[in-house]
């Protein structure tokens, strides 16, 4: 039954009244959105093992929902995507696209582009110029085949040239992070060149739209000139006048709670500015997305304002609205239009030309810049990455009648193929670990100084970590201590993650924003990074510890690789990991049994729990899991912390011996009172006896050594009651110590803490922190190839 479009209602009266919801605009839009999200997310999950960016799943999902797959069944297709719903779907998708382009402009920092190296500039220029030359030949071939004869040659050349030469900057950043190439020479050059490429591509696309725009009675060369002049005037006004206004707004925004209402007004004003800028460029005759993009460039990149605006809209835009744009593009893509050997031959020509132009141009210039051949080739493949921007170019070309349905389908498949091939090709031809191993094979791993790699989730971890380091090292040992503190940040598909990626510095395999203390470079824009850097700077000046602070940005599934690689490269003797739960001071400081209700306990995410477990499985040095439940209270030099009560529980085994050594090291600090409690068992070996004998000799008079012989069924009850009754602020245990008595019956809820640590976590007061040690004998480190060159 055909519907009269003028009678389409926004909402239906409901099925009980005999009204089909799919004949109403809003219910149908809801169904379309659910279907699009389900298909794209399912494809993203399936492609995850192949390490493909999410944009691949979104493009494929759009094609599958279009006439190429779902559209084969006309009845279902017209039921879910009737022709009258297309303008509604495209309007909602266009709002998402408008704000996404605003985010793209927000990501691009013009100042950093101006500071790019000459090599990156030359590579970007070659990656644009040669594809344009190849596009001239492809345009000629397409016109001869009858695909482009209906449009002027100049317009076709411009659109083809932009589509072949463009590099998707956000997609490239995500691929580089996934492949751990962000701070390699290849990654640094690719990021700088892609940022410059992005700006040039948008300028060329604006030119192409202006030239293709005039149609109708008022069309002509003079109209195109007026569009170009008006567009240049708009850009100048935005970058000169509006930019200063946005700088003033950014300064007025304050993190103080009393300014929340004013800040809300400024953010709403900014979002309204996105819409107004889009309207102005549409009024001029250029697509509305250009206005949103330019407005994003006017937002100051330093400070908190840009991040706060981005957090308000990025999930809604990228997660909900943007997939609708891929769906609307897929509805226009009909692979069946590519018919016959000639059409498929043209597809092969376009793909090979796109790859050859971008890869060869980048490769040749990179070789002339004295980059190694493998790196140059990998750089060319990376610069060939396409993505959403490519789809935007193609859709605008289709709207302007420059591209017909068949040419549109060919170029969409080209974008899909070139992006899909990037990750596996780069993995095959370029492995940075191989190029670095040779320089480390003969490196001496013996060092007189103590090296600790400490991981941090947020600034809340820093005071406790500093107190732990202070307690672990005596004043005499501090000059030889090197503390490598890593702020772990999860990399996602969010634009805010890409902004962090852009600030990458060449200071270690997964690192950005290095702060080498003293002389801190306060390059971090986020307050969290600033607070962490300031805390370590103060600690460094107050003590004689050498501190290196960096920020690691990586996906959670590979974060453990980064931690282990850096531990090897820095020859760390121990890695300190924060537990995935954080206790706040409001939950009390001891005196109670157990955690009570979980008030004051924050779970930072089970993903971090998996990271800890993987580090414990793969690390080639000792690992300590630190459960902070109030250890940050007072510094060790303050009266409050003058008697930090530390306990070591010893049951036997390599991990317990390591825990005892760490405890004895703490005993050398006059601000620490140590109690060693040994639970006697017949399985105790010679190694245990030797370590215990040495510990007894080294303990000071105020320290305490206790031996306990306990009935097998009361071991757990005994050590729990001792820890509760003594009021220890820190308990040090081995992760895989000997299991005696009823300890074997316990099923750990947190295997990363071992049996003893898990029992104490569930049974002791909030004020008792835990340090769970896993020993590594270091044999595997001898002669082991290290990965990644860090220069913090």
TrEMBL record:
GO terms for cellular component: endomembrane system; membrane. The keyword Transmembrane helix applies. Residues 645-779 form the Cation/H(+) antiporter C-terminal domain. GO terms for biological process: potassium ion transport; proton transmembrane transport; regulation of pH. Pfam families: CHX17_2nd, CHX17_C, Na_H_Exchanger. Its main location: membrane. It is a multi-pass membrane protein. GO terms for molecular function: antiporter activity. Residues 37-426 form the Cation/H+ exchanger transmembrane domain. It comes from the Eukaryota. It is found in: Membrane. Keywords: Antiport, Ion transport, Membrane, Potassium, Potassium transport, Transmembrane, Transmembrane helix, Transport. Residues 481-634 form the Cation/H(+) antiporter central domain. The chain crosses the membrane at residues 25-48, 55-71, 91-108, 120-142, 154-177, 189-211, 223-242, 343-365, 408-430. Belongs to the monovalent cation:proton antiporter 2 (CPA2) transporter (TC 2.A.37) family. CHX (TC 2.A.37.4) subfamily. This is Cation/H+ exchanger domain-containing protein.
């Amino acid at each position: 039954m055909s519907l009269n479009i003028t009678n389409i209602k926004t909402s239906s009266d409901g099925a009980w009244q005999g009204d089909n919801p799919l004949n109403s605009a809003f219910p149908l839009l809801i169904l379309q959105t659910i279907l699009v999200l389900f298909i794209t997310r399912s494809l993203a999950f399936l492609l995850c093992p192949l390490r493909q960016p999410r944009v691949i799943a979104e493009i494929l999902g759009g094609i599958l929902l279009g006439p190429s797959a779902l559209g084969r069944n006309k009845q279902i297709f017209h039921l879910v995507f009737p022709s009258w719903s297309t303008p509604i779907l495209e309007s909602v998708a266009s709002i998402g696209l408008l704000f996404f382009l605003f985010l793209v402009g927000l990501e691009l920092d013009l100042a950093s582009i101006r500071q790019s190296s000459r090599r990156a500039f030359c590579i970007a220029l070659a990656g644009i110029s040669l594809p344009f030359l190849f596009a001239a030949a492809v345009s000629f071939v397409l016109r001869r085949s009858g695909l482009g004869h209906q449009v002027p040659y100049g317009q076709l050349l411009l659109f083809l040239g932009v589509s072949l030469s463009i590099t998707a900057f956000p997609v490239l950043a995500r691929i580089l992070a996934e492949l751990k190439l962000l701070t390699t020479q290849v990654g640094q050059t690719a990021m700088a060149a892609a940022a410059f490429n992005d700006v040039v591509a948008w300028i060329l696309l604006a030119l192409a739209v202006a030239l293709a725009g005039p149609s109708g009675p008022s069309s002509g060369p003079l109209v195109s000139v007026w569009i170009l002049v008006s567009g240049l005037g708009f850009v100048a006004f935005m970058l000169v006048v509006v930019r200063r206004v946005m700088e003033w707004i950014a300064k007025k925004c304050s993190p103080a709670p009393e300014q929340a209402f004013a800040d809300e007004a400024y953010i709403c004003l900014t979002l309204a500015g996105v819409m107004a800028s889009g309207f102005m460029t549409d009024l001029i005759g250029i697509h509305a997305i250009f206005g949103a993009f330019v407005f994003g460039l006017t937002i100051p990149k330093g400070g908190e304002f840009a991040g706060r605006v981005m957090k308000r809209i990025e999930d809604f835009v990228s997660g909900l609205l943007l997939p609708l744009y891929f769906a609307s593009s897929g509805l226009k893509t009909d692979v069946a239009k590519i018919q016959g050997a000639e059409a498929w031959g043209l597809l092969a020509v376009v793909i090979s030309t796109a790859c050859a132009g971008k890869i060869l141009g980048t490769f040749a210039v990179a070789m002339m810049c004295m980059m190694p051949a493998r790196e140059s080739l990998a750089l060319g493949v990376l610069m060939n990455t396409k993505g959403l921007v490519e789809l935007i170019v193609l859709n605008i070309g289709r709207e302007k009648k420059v591209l017909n349905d068949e040419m549109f389908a060919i170029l969409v498949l080209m974008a899909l193929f070139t992006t899909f091939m990037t990750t596996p090709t780069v993995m095959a031809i370029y492995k940075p670990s191989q190029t670095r191993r040779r320089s480390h094979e003969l490196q001496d791993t013996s060092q007189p100084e103590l090296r600790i790699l400490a991981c941090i989730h947020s600034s809340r971890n820093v005071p406790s970590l500093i107190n732990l380091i202070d307690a672990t090292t005596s004043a005499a040992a501090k000059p030889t201590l090197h503390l490598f503190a890593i702020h772990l940040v999860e990399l996602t598909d969010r634009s805010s993650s890409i902004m962090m990626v852009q600030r990458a510095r060449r200071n270690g395999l997964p690192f950005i924003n290095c702060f080498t203390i003293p002389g801190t470079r306060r390059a971090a824009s986020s307050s969290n990074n600033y607070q962490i850097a300031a805390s370590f700077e103060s600690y460094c000046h107050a003590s004689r510890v050498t501190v290196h602070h960096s920020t690691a940005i990586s996906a959670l599934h590979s974060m453990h690789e980064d931690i282990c690689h850096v531990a090897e490269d820095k020859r760390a003797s121990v890695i300190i990991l924060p537990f995935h739960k954080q206790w706040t001071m409001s939950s009390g400081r001891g005196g109670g049994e157990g955690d009570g209700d979980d008030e004051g306990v924050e779970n930072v995410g089970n993903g971090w729990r998996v990271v800890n477990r993987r580090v414990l499985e793969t690390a080639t040095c000792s690992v300590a899991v630190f459960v902070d439940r109030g250890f940050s209270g007072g510094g060790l030099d303050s009266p409050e912390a003058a008697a930090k009560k530390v306990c070591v529980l010893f049951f036997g085994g390599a991990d317990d011996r390591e825990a005892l050594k760490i405890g004895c090291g703490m005993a050398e600090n006059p601000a620490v009172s140590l109690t060693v409690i040994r639970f006697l068992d017949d399985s105790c070996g010679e190694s245990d006896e030797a370590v215990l004998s040495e510990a007894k000799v080294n303990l000071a008079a105020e320290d305490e050594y206790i031996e306990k012989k306990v009935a097998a069924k009361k071991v757990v009850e005994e050590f729990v009651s001792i820890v509760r009754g003594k009021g220890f602020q820190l308990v040090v245990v081995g992760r895989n110590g000997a299991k005696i008595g009823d300890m074997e019956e316990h099923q750990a809820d947190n295997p990363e803490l071992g049996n003893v640590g898990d029992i104490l976590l569930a049974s002791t007061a909030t004020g008792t922190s835990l340090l769970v040690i896993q020993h590594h004998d270091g044999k595997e480190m001898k002669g082991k190839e290290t990965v990644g060159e860090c220069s913090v």
